Automatic annotation (TrEMBL):
Full protein name: Protein-S-isoprenylcysteine O-methyltransferase Ste14
Source organism per UniProt: Nitrosomonas marina
Database matches in InterPro entries: Metal_cation-efflux_comp, UstE-like
Keywords of the record: Membrane, Transmembrane, Transmembrane helix
Short name of one Pfam family: DUF1295
Positions of transmembrane segments: 20-38, 58-76, 113-133, 166-187, 203-229, 241-263, 284-306, 312-329
PANTHER family in the cross-refs: BLL3993 PROTEIN
Source taxon at top rank: Bacteria
Length: 361
């Protein structure tokens, strides 16, 4: 009798977990399908293996595959627990029934964690999927061009670097970065040691994180502008190559931080502290390197502004200062969140004392 009862409970819990997750996936898919901004955003084409695909097609295929994978997982996991999807639905039910009470007293920890985790995944996962697909397509396209022309005696090394060499390496770097973040958002398993322990519950933490992602980065650009470019052009070929190779090296370190995070890669979460890779030297290597790469990408715009007026120069530089402040705020809010959960981050800070610049800051 206990064996039958246990089996019955397990099966019941599996069905509940699966049903709640499928409901959330359906609701999220419906949301993206009816919002005009996302209809346009996900209708972008990417050239892939000789054909053009729209990003919404990739999302549909990925969603179906992900749903099938979840179906298999929920029906076969060794010891099913109440899923974050169920906690999320419980939280939404309480908010719908009595929003004033929830505002006043808050939600139980598990329900708050479930709600914030699902919101996090629902926002970031679709972006990561289409970016991963896009970066892969561009990486393959530029890689093909590079290997077709690399032995051509009529193509100089600078032309090779400008037409396909830089872009192949750049897209390869971004591909690796987004790959780990995509997996991090979609997969959360005890066996991978990447379960979400906490999600930043503060409005400021979410605001500065979302400010860097569409559609909110459009509003950030309206405030600060966006004068930097991924591949800045310089008239002197030596300076051009040196600065752009430096940019690629900075972006490689940026991505090495994502590789170090591995399957724990995601924004606004506490999933355990990483102390290897570039995190051995400073606490926010990804933010530092990404911003330094953007500062290099700003140089041509500064040069043009300098020839125009001092005001134009200050506006151009101020734009990048604004973006850098966003990332400084992201670092500070992340640290505040991680410190609020347990003492693991404090132990890490005792080992790695500097946030941004070794020996200085």
């Amino acid at each position: 009798m206990p064996i039958i009862s246990t089996y019955s409970y397990n099966f019941s819990q599996r069905v509940k977990n699966l049903s709640a997750t499928l409901l959330i996936i359906a609701a999220t898919s419906g949301f993206y399908a009816i919002i005009p901004y996302y209809q346009s955003y996900f209708s972008v084409h990417t050239h892939y293996f000789g054909k053009d695909y729209m990003h919404w097609q990739v999302l549909v295929v990925t969603t179906l595959f992900y749903t099938f994978t979840l179906f298999v997982f929920y029906l076969t996991e060794p010891a099913p627990r109440v899923s974050k999807s169920i906690y999320c639905l419980r939280a939404l039910h309480k908010i719908a029934i009595s929003p004033a009470t929830v505002w006043k007293t808050g939600l139980p920890f598990d329900e708050r964690l479930g709600l914030l985790s699902i919101l996090l995944k629902a926002f970031f996962a679709p972006l990561m999927i289409v970016w991963l697909f896009s970066h892969t397509g561009h990486m393959l396209e530029h890689g093909s061009q590079l290997f077709q022309t690399i032995g051509d005696p009529n193509t100089g090394w600078l032309a090779l670097f400008n037409t396909s060499g830089f872009w192949f390496i750049f897209k390869l770097i971004l591909f690796l970065d987004v790959l780990f973040f995509t997996i991090g958002y979609l997969v959360e398993l005890p066996s991978l040691n990447n379960e979400i322990r906490s999600v930043d519950p503060t409005l400021l933490g979410w605001a500065v994180a979302l400010a860097s992602y569409p559609p909110f980065n459009g509003m950030t650009s309206m405030v600060f502008g966006g004068y930097f470019t991924d591949f800045p052009q310089f008239s002197d070929p030596v300076v051009h190559v040196i600065l752009n190779v430096t940019l690629l090296m900075l972006m490689a370190v940026y991505t090495s931080a994502s590789v170090a995070l591995n399957f724990k890669a995601s924004n606004l979460t506490h999933r355990g502290i990483i102390m290897h890779g570039p995190y051995r030297y400073i606490r926010h290597p990804a933010y530092v390197c990404k911003n330094l790469a953007w500062w290099i990408g700003l140089m041509p715009a500064v040069a043009v502004a300098w020839q125009t007026s001092l005001t134009a120069t200050l506006i151009t530089i101020g734009s990048m200062v604004g973006w850098s402040v966003i990332y400084i705020m992201r670092a500070l809010t992340e640290e505040r969140h991680l410190r609020s959960i347990d003492d693991e981050y404090d132990q890490y800070c005792a080992r790695v004392k500097y946030r941004f610049i070794p020996g200085l800051v």
